[in-house]
TrEMBL record:
Domain Bacterial bifunctional deaminase-reductase C-terminal: residue ranges: 3-171
Name under which the protein is recorded: Dihydrofolate reductase
SUPFAM superfamilies in the cross-refs: Dihydrofolate reductase-like
Organism lineage string: Bacteria, Bacillati, Actinomycetota, Actinomycetes, Micrococcales
Segments traversing the membrane: none
């Protein structure tokens, strides 16, 4: 079974975007030492990508005419109607994430599933017991408010830190094992 991973960047105070979905605070760090290598190594093991409708709409708006994940199946959880980019393997779905875990696993074809975002979608996977790892790059910026990295209703059991490393420009990458809840009746 593939590993379901939430690979994300967060401000020091726990936000993945401003309240109005701006990422200028993050994009100013493009090209930091170790960032490309980390992303490339991560992507080498990704067989399926999952994102929410807002993340999908942001990508389409900010990268018109470019689909950044060619050749990788992408599933978009949304309540809105969207069009897929020409030639992209994009599937639009509605419903609880737990209903799609087996389909996502099959689409990953022996590789991992990347939960791109947003935080609300990643929290749904965590609540469903279908989140295995969080790989989070802490960006040395304080936003004050915005879209939370993982907006869950309450405290979780402690996560297991399995790796950490310092990268360029003061960025810290942390890898935590979440663990799936046991399957129940």
């Amino acid at each position: 079974m593939p590993t379901f991973q939430y690979f994300v960047a967060s401000s020091l105070d726990g936000f993945i975007a401003t309240a109005d979905d701006q990422l200028d605070w993050l994009l100013q760090f493009d090209g930091f030492d170790g960032g490309k290598e980390s992303y490339d190594a991560f992507m080498a093991d990704v067989g399926c990508i999952v994102m929410g409708g807002e993340t999908y709409a942001w990508l389409r708006k900010h990268e018109p005419g470019n689909w950044p994940y060619p050749g990788t199946p992408c599933w978009v959880f949304t309540h809105h109607e969207h069009l897929a980019p020409a030639g992209a393997d994009v599937t639009f779905v509605r419903g609880p994430v737990a209903e799609f875990v087996e389909d996502l696993s099959a689409a990953a074809a022996g590789k991992n599933v990347w939960i791109v975002g947003g935080g609300v979608l990643a929290a749904q996977f965590a609540d469903a017991g279908a989140l295995d790892e969080i790989i989070i790059s802490i960006i040395p910026v304080v936003l004050g408010n915005g879209k939370a990295v993982l907006p869950m209703a309450g405290p979780t059991a402690p996560l297991e830190l399995v790796a950490s490393r310092t990268m360029g420009r003061g960025i810290l990458e942390l890898r935590y094992r979440w663990g799936r809840k046991p399957a129940g009746p």
